[in-house]
Write a structure and sequence with these properties.
The chain is mostly helical and 113 residues long. The protein has eight helices and no strands.
Length: 113
């Protein structure tokens, strides 16, 4: 599949954090050893007492990227499922924009709280 076609397919797919996806994400975070670090991460709060989402995203993505090698295959499969593309296609896309999008997902944010 050409890159333009992959992008089109990715944009059309809607990800649902079903039981399988939740278990896979939980397993990836556990395998990376970052689940507790995410929970304990130091974040800043805005004037209204809400978590600064950008700060939280930056912390999570930094933890995720620095431990990516520990669950590379599992993460690639999760991204393939998330984006509705094949594993081989997921191996060839830019990971950081996908992770940014993933961790911006309201369902994922609820899971990480």
């Amino acid at each position: 599949m050409k890159e333009e076609e992959i992008t089109r397919v990715m944009n059309e797919k809607k990800f649902v954090l079903n039981n399988k996806a939740l278990c896979n994400l939980s397993m990836i975070l556990d395998k990376m050893g970052i689940a507790q670090a995410i929970i304990d991460s130091k974040v800043t709060f805005d004037d209204n007492g809400n978590i600064d989402k950008q700060d939280l995203y930056n912390n999570i993505i930094a933890l995720f990227i620095s431990n990516y090698y520990k669950a590379e295959k599992e993460t690639t499969q999760f991204i393939a499922d998330y984006k509705g593309i094949t594993y081989e296609e997921a191996e060839n896309i830019e990971v950081i924009p996908v992770l940014t999008e993933l961790f911006s997902n309201n369902t994922i944010q609820s899971f990480l709280k």
